[in-house]
Protein: Transposase
Organism: Pseudomonas silesiensis
Amino acid sequence: MKRHPGNSNLMLCCEDHYLGLPIQVSKGPFVRNYLYSLNRVIQRALDDCPRVFAFRFDLRFPAAIDLPDYLYTNRVMDRFLESFKAKIKHNRLKAGSSGKYIHDTKVRYVWAREIGLLGKPHYHVLILLNRDAFTTLGNFEPGRDNIFNRLVGSWASALRLSVDECNGLVHIPDKPDYRLHRDDELGQQELFYRASYLCKSATKAYGDGQHGFGASRV
């Protein structure tokens, strides 16, 4: 195995698959450590819940607003995830206030920090939830009580901006969501292929004191 030239703690994966799972070969090489974490997060979600709702999105920084330097560090992702988890917990508590049984969910995630052409970072993110608790992102319209607007609200909180100032900063790509079942190997392969993009070596910064990749441990 070949070590990453920018970080000797990371190993590169130059094959056309990882543990038999398909990866986006044209985007390679990939970081084997990151592929391991991605697979672990997906499998732990499926071990915990027989049905999983997973979705991809990107987080961007505003072009015309000056932000404090610390918001361009990994602290901003910590703030985003804390806010999003709190919003999900609030939703579950509110849903259970009627006394009816409700399905809870952990928030599992994988993220990649990349540097764009102008030197500004952006984040690619995958989140996985219990599909018996959440099944859709909802309409991409302001003000609705759905996953999409929780993402926007959490990013606004992380950046210390208003929701209006974050308009367009949460990007939802084409075909962003996956509804997995524990026994659906094809669906799991499709998700792994899509999310393998987060594990590519290119466009990540090394040696700047920031992590280029993160994943939930639970």
